[in-house]
DNA sequence: CAAGTTACTTTATGCCGTAAGGAGTTGCAA
DNA sequence: TTGCAACTCCTTACGGCATAAAGTAACTTG
């Protein structure tokens, strides 16, 4: 299920997102000294999500990691939904921003995509945060600004660039999702990829004896694979996805080049 | 959160997926006549998911729609997870398969992508079913076989085709996800897109006075938009996503063409 | 030192998937 | 015809979830 951003009080949410990290958290009034900070909670929540995935991210789990109950967090954060916004933007801060344009936009876009790929594998739960309602945090804008700086080098007009951003982000997310999910799956289901594929493919023959006649093109594709050299150090699915990503990037970059040539003829 | 397929008994799961629909459901032994069928339950579950999205899909809700309790469903279906597998494959049966190759693979891929787009918008919850562990149902293979039939027309070798399938599926899913989520968001959060954007963009100025200096490329992109003609009959975000999809497809098709020319020089 | 403010806890509500066990219905063998 | 086994469907219960409401204790200020 997709998690939606910022359902709560928009003002409070934006204030939390854009607060200068670490500052403005000094308190003076009466009452007991706060034992936690928003940053502490966000860090703990990210640690929980990195380890146990989005399904493991409960207010109880985050509280427990900090030696508190779930309810204690509500002093600092309006709701779980807002906490996820903060986690998302905080994680995005990891992404580098200094892409070298000296070797052209093609190399820079490749580097950007590679960094995205690695980022999503470090924090797979980010893929579960909906893109329809962007968090609008500072680091999300950083990422967008960095990509745009590269893309303006193509000389294409803004209207086209805006779509290109969507295409690139969508493609990277789609490609990495397969790997992220296949890594998460064993933990969350208790079945390894190997066990799963073995059980399924054996059953497939039993349950569908006319497979070859019914799906001739699938069979044609599969039969060619038998002759490929198998490197089993990296699981098949993951290697396949990695290659899909690499060649998909080439396809897209070639497509962008074609767009440029079309828009600036000669 | 992503839902994983087939955690339960693989044999039972595959048997349910590949059972000839409507047949083999006649019972003879002792015991009361079954009041439901697997098909009835799957249809009801799809109806619930179409209306209320994945978060609204509970065993209680599906049972209620059929005038039963949640537990009654467990007579027919091993678990919610298996039910989702069945829903997924059953929904995929809607997709057409007779793509005309007379006008070339380019037009056929475009038609395929368009059908996928519409399918996902009819059943947005399908986007929440993990791709890492395919359901391996008959209609999933139908879809794959149909796409492969088109792609074999390119004359590219199997290894490349397999990656192309991943690229295309990933791209379509990524692109449509934005629209699907933006349509679901108002129902699930109680806030319309307009309200949401208005509140956020107003706050953005307040909370980040140095926006223009900090994100020059974002501002450059946005300023060009002011001169575009606004057609407000279709919400901005959705129209933008639609255009991103269309131009992304062109980019990918051009990229495939470049791959073909490179592999068959001259 | 009392009052007010705040951090944090306990308790409770209403969701969820599903395990366990019981009630009622039916077909078949004795 | 009777009794049993098989079967559908129900009620109840458990442990999980987010979070509302209310209570407790720590602290500053008057």
Walkthrough of the structure:
The structure is a homodimer of 266-residue chains. Chain A is mainly α and 266 residues long. Chain A has two domains: 10-92, Homeodomain-like (Arc Repressor Mutant, subunit A), CATH 1.10.10.60; 105-263, Tetracycline Repressor, domain 2 (Orthogonal Bundle). Helices cover 64% and strands 0% of the residues of chain A. The first copy, chain A, is flat and about 75 Å long. Residues 1-8 of chain A have low confidence and may be disordered. At the A-B interface, helix 1, helix 6, helix 7, helix 8 and helix 10 of A face helix 1, helix 2, helix 6, helix 7 and helix 8 of B. The first copy, chain A, binds a DNA duplex (30 and 30 nucleotides) through loops.
């Amino acid at each position: 299920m997709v998690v939606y951003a910022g359902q709560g009080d928009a003002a409070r949410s934006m204030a939390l997102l854009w607060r200068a990290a670490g500052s403005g958290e000094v308190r003076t009034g009466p009452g007991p000294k706060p034992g936690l900070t928003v940053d502490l909670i966000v860090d703990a929540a990210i640690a929980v999500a990195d380890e146990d995935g989005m399904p493991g991210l409960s207010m109880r789990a985050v509280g427990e990691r900090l030696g508190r109950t779930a309810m204690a967090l509500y002093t600092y954060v309006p709701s779980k939904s807002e906490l996820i916004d903060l986690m998302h933007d905080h994680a995005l801060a990891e992404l580098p921003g200094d892409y070298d344009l000296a070797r052209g936009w093609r190399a820079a876009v490749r580097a950007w995509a590679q960094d995205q790929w690695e980022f999503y594998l470090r924090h797979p739960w980010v893929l579960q945060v909906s893109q329809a309602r962007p968090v609008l945090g500072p680091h999300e804008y950083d990422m967008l600004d960095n990509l745009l700086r590269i893309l303006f080098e193509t000389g294409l007009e803004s209207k086209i660039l805006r779509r290109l951003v969507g295409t690139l982000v969508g493609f990277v997310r789609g490609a990495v999702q397969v790997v992220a999910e296949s890594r998460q799956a064993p933990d969350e289901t208790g079945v390894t990829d190997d066990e799963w594929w073995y059980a399924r493919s054996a059953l497939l023959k039993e349950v569908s004896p006319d497979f070859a006649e019914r799906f001739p093109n699938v069979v044609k594709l599969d039969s060619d694979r038998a002759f490929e050299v198998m490197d089993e150090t990296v699981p098949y699915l993951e290697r396949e996805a990695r290659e899909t990503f690499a060649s998909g990037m080439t396809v897209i970059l070639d497509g962008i080049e074609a767009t440029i040539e079309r828009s600036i003829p000669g």
